[in-house]
Amino acid sequence: MTTAVRFQRVSRHFGTVRAVDDVTLDIAEGEFFAMLGPSGSGKTTCLRLIAGFEQPTSGHIEIFGETAEGVPPYRRNVNTVFQDYALFPHMNVLDNVGYGLMVRGVSKAQRDKRSLEALALVELAGFEARRPGQLSGGQRQRVALARALVNEPKVLLLDEPLGALDLKLREQMQVELKTLQRNLGITFVFVTHDQGEALSMADRVAIFNEGKIVQVGVPEDIYERPRRRFVADFVGSSNVLTPDFSARTGGPHKWASLRPEKIDIWREETLPDATVRHCEAKVISVHYQGAVTRIATQAGGQLLSATIPSGSAKVSPGDIVTLAWPAGALHVMEDEA
Ligand code: ATP
Predict the structure, then answer these.
(1) In 45, 203, 263, 272, which residue has its Cα 20 to 30 A from 186's Cα atom?
(2) What is the pLDDT of residues 30-48, one digit of tens each?
(3) Could you give the percent of the chain with pLDDT greater than 90?
(4) Which of 187-201, 255-269, 280-294 has the lowest mean pLDDT?
(5) Distance between Cα 40 and ligand 1 center (Å)
(6) Handedness of CA 244, 249, 250, 254 (dihedral sign)
(7) 3-228 domain in CATH 3.40.50.300?
């Protein structure tokens, strides 16, 4: 398997800020790779390092086996789609898409041909004479994508490309982007702080915190088997059990995660057997979410959320309930107890 992008102990410091701090990472050719993390965690700086807009303070970057340090952005086989699209307002769609080719001295006839092909790829055939101001947000997004694709990059960097779109359009573009990536086979490196987006689109996800990658893995690993409290907290809505609570309910004296959908409300007099862990908890709130209802509870100092099929139990805030979960549902994390 060819490595598209390799980071070896890469850091980028701005004064005392460690924007990227000792990151080692391999992104495979053809991979849809998401960088996920809170604001300021270093995702964009990583993209800019790949694009060549930033240079590492230390460490080494390779793109398709070639040293990237010192290679200017336009000589890397990499293109970026920015969140604000950065389209030229006074140029029509065709010229916006062909701009990069013009800078590289490609003839007008050639660049128009290739730009029309790129516009067809993003399903914008027929829009070439319009100005960006005459397009919807989603259409502008597609123009930005076509403008990057027309250069036939081997790696496409996308910095929150769907951030400016409303939810419905965003979901539609998620599907389209993923399909396009599959069909073209281009390596996508996608920055987002939307965990649902990262998990649903990416082949692998890297979770960033304070300039470091805390965990990298396939979406299922990240969601089901977070290695650290930070990941469990950030990715979705898992319960993070303190070592004391875990021990009190029969688990190890370690930090552990427990997904809300694994917890049930026990309604019988007796509990079935020793493979089921349980505790008493007080219901704090009940949120109907359609197919499931989310119940927030408190067991001593431990907050526990359970999602149960709507209509399967009648509970109200203030009720004392018994929560039960299979022993195997507990996922032990690596944080110090
Ligand atoms: P967001 O999701 O908000 O875009 P991010 O994870 O992409 O955040 P970065 O933009 O990579 O984060 O920033 C990482 C850290 O580096 C932040 O603390 C930021 O303020 C700092 N930083 C980034 N660029 C510079 C710069 N040119 N000069 C000084 N500090 C910078």
Answers:
(1) 45
(2) 999 999 999 999 999 999 9
(3) 73
(4) 255-269
(5) 5
(6) negative
(7) yes
pLDDT, tens digit, for every residue of 178-215? 998 998 899 999 999 888 899 999 999 999 999 999 99
User: Which ligand 1 atom is at minimum distance from the Cα of 15?
Assistant: 29
Residue 152: count other Cβ atoms within 10 Å of its Cβ.
Answer: 12
The ranges assigned to domains in the chain are 3-228, 237-332
Ligand 1, closest atom to CA 45?
A: 11
Question: Can you tell me the distance from the alpha carbon of 237 to that of 262, in angstroms, rounded to the nearest whole number?
Answer: 12
Task: Convert the pLDDT of each residue in 117-132 to its tens digit.
Answer: 999 988 889 999 999 9
- CA–centroid distance, 244 to ligand 1, in Å, is 37
* Tokens standing for residue 319: 């009720």
Pick the atom of ligand 1 nearest to 191's CA. 7
Residue at token pair 């007080």: 282
CA gap 315, 283 in Å, rounded: 8
**Ligand 1 centre and the CA of 92: distance in Å?**
32
In terms of CATH architecture, what is 237-332? Beta Barrel (2.40)
CA of 252 to the centre of ligand 1 (A): 38
